[in-house]
Structures are given as C-alpha cells and as structure tokens.
Amino acid sequence: MNIAVIGAGNIGKTLGEKWVAAGHTLRFGVRNPADPKFDTLRQRFGVAGVLSVAEAIDAAEIVVLAVPGAAVAEIAAEHGARLAGKIVIDTTNNGRAATLHNVDILSAAAPDAIQARAFSTLGWENFATPVLGGTQIDLFYCGDPRARATTDRLIADIGLRPIYIGGLDAAATVDGVARLWFALALGQKMGRRLAFKLLSE
Ligand SMILES: NC(=O)c1ccc[n+]([C@@H]2O[C@H](COP(=O)([O-])OP(=O)(O)OC[C@H]3O[C@@H](n4cnc5c(N)ncnc54)[C@H](OP(=O)(O)O)[C@@H]3O)[C@@H](O)[C@H]2O)c1
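YS: structure for the whole thing
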C-alpha cells in the first residue's frame, strides 16, 4: 500500500519503519522537507520518502496523522480537499481540547475522507516492540467500516492484534483506553511498557 505519514517523530518513524519492513511504500509529509534534520530519514527512506505534506498526501492511498493533536485542525483546513477518498488514520491525542480525538474536525474539513482512529492508546515503545512478556499486545481502535480491512492489516503489520470496537461514534471509547494508559503508565508510574490484552471465549 502507498502510505503517507504526516509527522516524523516518535510515532511517525516507529510506524513507518515497520510498514516499510512489511513491504509498503512510505512517504513522510513534513513541514520543511529540505531541513537537514531529515537527512537521516532520507538515507533510510530515500529522497522521495521525505516530501511536503501536500506531496505526500497526493501520492498516498492511506494518510496517517502523527503530529501534535493541536496541529490536526490546521492540517485538515489546509489539506481537507486532497484527503477525499483516502483512508485517514488519526493517531493523535489533543490533550488541550475537550476530546483527545479529532473526528469532528476531520469530518468537517475533510468530509470525504474515510477515517479511522488507531495507534492513539499506547506509548510508541509498544509499537516498536509489540510483545510484552511473550504476549502479543492488542490495539483497540475504531473507524469507518470502509477503513476496517486496511486498518486491521496495517495494525497487524506493526505486530499488534487489531481489536475493532466500532465506527467513529466509538472514538470516545478509544480515547478512554488512552486515558486508562495515561493513568496507569504515567499517573501510577507503572512505566511506558504497559499495554492491554482482551480476554474472551
Ligand atoms: N509518543 C507516543 O508514545 C504517542 C502514543 C500514541 C499517540 N501519540 C500521539 O501521536 C502524535 C505524535 O506524537 P509523537 O510522540 O510522534 O510526537 P513528536 O515526536 O513530537 O513528533 C511530532 C511530529 O509532528 C511534526 N509536526 C508538528 N506540527 C506539524 C504540522 N503543523 N504539520 C506537519 N508536521 C507537524 C513535527 O515536525 P517538526 O519537527 O517540524 O516540528 C514532528 O515530526 C501526538 O498527537 C501524540 O499525542 C503519541
């Protein structure tokens, strides 16, 4: 699959590495692609792997938002039209807003994007190493049912087990999982290598 990852920080780079290893084509969309700070990324992903946000989105079928949560509104306002018809996976958490997710902002600015909300509930270290104590980590996510098969595959390609919990109306529930992670990993100081497993018959 052709994937654009917008933002090349902890989440963007961790997911990007795994998806390239799984055989996907990956391009990062960044604010200033010419910045020498992206030289290492260029060496790893190729010159065409570090583009402007617009160029990366235009080349992709799937767009993964891995920027600060507060930046999503600006990106959606500027690039909403070019997201039409693409699967947009929002990994971001906006700690300064009423909701961690950006479903409403994205729906308003990019009504024809096919949204999923995933990779928002655990620290990035658990995506880099998706097994804890020999057990595969589960990733709870939600999204437009049209995005489900692709998102399941991309989650599995990270090495996690995807657990779909419903459509975009389940975004607050997904955010509850993130808040549980924050409460335990950070609040209770249990550490960032902490994740969740669904048990069922
Ligand atoms: N870190 C985690 O463990 C974790 C886990 C789950 C979810 N999340 C969420 O994932 C998102 C990314 O987290 P992170 O830890 O990867 O952050 P990060 O390391 O700070 O990286 C953020 C990236 O976004 C870029 N960026 C900032 N504003 C932008 C804009 N307006 N347009 C394009 N790119 C922009 C930054 O580029 P510049 O270098 O140009 O500033 C940077 O590459 C956050 O919303 C966070 O809440 C994080």
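YS: worth flagging: Residues 171-187 form the longest helix (17 residues).
IM: good catch. Also The domain at 2-187 is CATH 3.40.50.720 (Rossmann fold).
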